[in-house]
Amino acid sequence: MNAKWMQWLRRIVQGAVLLLFLLLFWEAQTSLSEDPKRSLQLFFLLDPLVLIATWLAAHAVPALLLFSLITLGATAILGRVFCGWVCPLGTVHNMASWLRRKAGRATAKLGAWSGWQRAKYYLLAGLIVMAVFGASWIGVFDPFSMLYRSMVTALYPATQYAVEDGATAIYVGDPHVGPLHLKDATEPAYKFLRSHVFLADRTAFLSGSVLFFIFVVAVALNFVRPRFWCRYICPLGALLGLFARRALLRLTNEPHICTNCTRCAAVCPAAAQPQKPGEWLPTECFGCWNCVHVCEAQSVSFGFGSPFRRASAGKLDISKRALLASMAGGIGGMLMFRLTPHAQAKTFNPALIRPPGALKEREFLARCIQCGLCMNVCPTNALQPTFAEAGIEGLWTPRLVPRIGYCEYECNRCGQACPTGAIEPLSLDAKKKTVIGLASFDTTRCLPYAYGQNCIVCEEHCPLPKKAIYTVDTEVTLRDGSTRTIRQPRVDASVCIGCGICENVCPFEDRPAIRVTSANETRHLDNQPILQGLEGFDLGGPQDVYGATDPYGGAADPYK
Amino acid sequence: MGMHTRRDFLRRAALAGGAMALSPFRAGSAQETKKSGLIDMTIARWTGEEASEPEQIKALAERLTEKAINALGGMNRFVSTGDVVWIKPNIGWNRRPEQAADTNPDVVATLIRLCYNAGAKKVKVGDNPCNPAKLAYANSGIEAAAKAMDAEVVVLDANRFREMSIGGERLKQWPVYPEIVESDLVINVPVVKHHNLLKAPFTACMKNYMGVAGGERGKWHADIPPCLCDITAFMKPRLCVLDAVRILTGNGPSGGSLADVKRMDTVAAGTDIVALDALAGELLGLDPKTLPTVREGHERGLGEMNYRKLALDELSVA
Predict the structure, then answer these.
(1) The complex's ipTM?
(2) Pick from B115, B103, B181, B100: which is nearest to B149 by CA?
(3) Residue of B nearest to A460 (CA)
(4) Could you state, in order of their start, the residue ranges of all structural domains in chain A?
(5) Which residues of B touch A473 (CB under 8 A)?
(6) Which chain A residues are closer than 8 Å to B214 by Cβ?
(7) Contact A374, A425 (CB under 8 A)
(8) How many secondary structure helices (H) and strands (E) does chain B include?
(9) What is the pLDDT of residue A547?
(10) Is the pLDDT of residue A552 over 70?
(11) A435-523 — its CATH code?
């Protein structure tokens, strides 16, 4: 096939895959009234790095992750076409690199091999050694995690702010020339976007600006070298590079035809040395066909080679010393992660409220790839990326922040969405019985305790069929000496599941007067201070939302 | 029944004339309005065979609603051709209809149909829920029911609340949703529920108006009766419909357990919000005279606490 056609075919595939990525992202946060589909995890299921990390760190292989073997198989035959044709983050970098090339002159220097390209292999080695010891930091660098996380926490919210606040500013300011009002144009567009695109409520994330900044830097680095991330950093690229060493799809540059014009090097996004006959680097090449297209002498071409003959290709020259150093670095990093009282399970961070179904902390960290899918499907914006709450090891893993959102009683989406099983896919009934924390009153602030006012907003919102917050009418003496009966709320620790709605709705917007901590969480027996079974409390055990009877008596549910 | 101003009187007179001229139920209401002029309140109670299947309960809710509105003089009494109507159910919670934490979707759907039949240009349905709006709208069944009736289901836009001058005793300024206030008619249609507020152990029509307000509404709880009276006076209710097909008798207002749900198979409608709230209290086994919001509403002239003093029509529907 003509090289120009191959380039266009690649661009179409890249665009289509990026669009699919965006669509799945959008569907994850808008299909709120149905259970998340497995297809939302698609990209993570195709990611062999996730498979290997989960297998090494958690000694488990979620069956669907075996799909990623397809990626490895394809790489063994076609080389790193995954990076060049499929990876949506690669496509984003590709677009930025294209801009860079349009902005300045393409020179061979931009496509020159650099020894620093070995860095990604060392990074991969370090991460894998870390994973062997149960510390999975793969997700920090994994391209899908990186892109998805950035979209959830920064790119999508930023877009939504811009549209909503922009339209509202025009609506409120009402700029007009005579009878022509700008809002007459923006309001219908805004209404359309609200009812068709931005279906979910606005979100905001802690560390969102940090993650935004990291993403912007990663994209801006394309101006230093095209596909900087893919060339120097991406551990998935490195893994695929290892599998591409003997790939059958090979590039040949005929030494007696090549005129050494180095135009191919100037357009090579991967610095795979197409310009040096016999020294092409299959571990780096994305199979993008740029070099073939640009070669006027028609010296450069792709073709399938025999699996029994090695390609004449350049060597990567991975340094054994550097490899050992990076593995030692992985062990050192793992030890550094674990040198905290929390990691040693001597203490529990009260602010580390994990989503319902989260495994025990160590196992959870071994599986979580920090992708942010759970945060995307959470309907209340409650799940937030950690920064330091779970130690460096748990960077950007999900935690529930009740002040921002709460665990919706009738929702189990995070566990259903999690691609690695770090959050168990609990049934709704099981989820309703899973304790993630415990509420407690700050009686120095709570209105009925501290200020002699009735309130009970927390009690009103408590979603349990038999409320975990109950009230006791108490006579309090006011400043003028008069007395007043005040309804004071209390928490029944045998019922509270720590969903956090009480903290979320407390009229104190700065520091709520009822706060939820991780105490009592089901997943850690050591973090359960309350002896269950005491007389005088409701200890009916787990509550059934429908009571004893089946609401439909087996009849069809008219509302589903 | 309060006729306070000349304008009110004129409006009522015009409405009465309009209803006489337009209502297709004119013939029937001649006998129904035997007491004096227009009916103030109707209570439709189901006396037919006991409904247990979901479809039967749906049919019952629709019939009760239609009968209650018709006996009140028909929807034409309230809706004029070309009107934009906002139906304000209680969609506070992400609960299912049978849990009785939200207004019955079939009552809402029937009201939408009646409004369109009366010539409404657009019927909108929306609330400011406590749980995520998308979930509450979907699980309450109201979104599907309203869309089937061609109503616009509006998810309130947190950006668009506007501070309005309430001019009340307690509430001077408060953010209210403009699109609701700007509608030609707001139909307040709450479900009757238990509540644990010391000064309002129940929630019905007046408390349902909390759903037009934004901001930190929770602090109204510190002194709920004047706050509810203030927002009620601001909203100037013209038509309220009380959904008591199922009522929530405990663990309100969010409920959850079917053990707390009681079937009353009743829908009431009226122009007097205090009267309807008094009835709601009675349905929950409370004496209206002990309910501070009802008493204060009565004292402030927002309505008549003793609803039996009104032009009342009690219907048995089968």
Answers:
(1) 0.86
(2) B115
(3) B253
(4) 1-28+38-339, 435-523
(5) 198
(6) none
(7) no
(8) 11, 12
(9) 38
(10) no
(11) 3.30.70.20
